[in-house]
Amino acid sequence: MDVFEAAKLVVGIDTKSFEEAKARQLTLTKPPYALGALEDVAAQICGIASLVPARTPSRGALAIFAGDHGVLEEGISPWPMEVTAQMVGNFLSGGAAANVLAKRTSTKVLVVDVGVALDLVPTEGLIIQKVAKGTSNLAKGAAMTREQAAKAIQVGFDVACDLVLDGHDILIAGDMGIGNTTPSAAIVAFMVGAPVASVTGYGTGISSELFEKKVAIIESAVSRTASSIDRSDVLGVLSSIGGFEHGATVGFIIGAAFSKVPLVLDGVISNSSALLARELSPLSLQYCFAGHASREVGAKVANSALGMEPLLNLDLALGEGSGALLALGLIQGATDLLADMATFDQAGVTEK
Fold first, then answer.
1. Hey, which residues does 171 pair with through a beta bridge?
2. pTM for this prediction
3. Is 320 labeled as catalytic in the residue annotation?
4. Annotated catalytic residue: which of 39, 74, 296, 320?
5. Of 222, 265, 269, 298, which shows the fewest CB atoms inside 10 Å?
């Protein structure tokens, strides 16, 4: 199905089930609201499932969208571009942090090549849907064409829908791309209207000198974009300053919502992408959880703009979906609590 048509068909979560879940919390053997944010998480899961109590999501799938970035030509990262392809190999062999964390919740790990510069060898666990061999340099002009932006979004949507058809009941947005915090900061700055320096982080450990250069490049790209593109023009924004993994994540979010399954956002890449997804399908965010408060300042600004409170705050800045994977266990626990705790009547406990 066409992602842009599907975006128009996304409906909000079931508010009746959401409220029933909140009411059920008051009958459980605990003081009112004693489980804090876990109660909100469980209610959101029930609203997504239209069922109280909801079945606990148990078949997670992490999609790591991988792509390279032409802006690396500007020397804004100490890591070379080939590390993206090397890390894809690490994911496929099970050696990355995301793989280790995924084992804890029996989560499937899938890598999607949406724009890696090098040619990858077809391997189990790898989906090759390369839009192009990396983006163009956003410091010199548009990062991609509008057609490429649309294709990247479609890739993410198709991956989400296929995973749900395969029986997965909660999706996790991951990413891999050396230099991808630069387009992420550009997207956040442009979509939120925030000063570039306030949403730009140090990425994979750059120096203060490189940070200033990174900010200047993003400021120029955002200014160029603002001169001719409106925030509501998602393809325009993405083609001007985005990355292929951003586009795919936009589609992934819409695909999860269209399929009525929850999705856990990770760090600055997925949160900046959520700002774009909101323009295409505002109701899609009702299916999303902010997994953690990334160390990258742009992620925090995006969380605030999206009205999402991160579930964890562990000073993480790895990406890959690592923080979202940690949050998955929390989401599962919150759903279990609502379903399996005894009520006051069942336990014979006197209510306050």
1. 61, 263
2. 0.97
3. yes
4. 320
5. 222
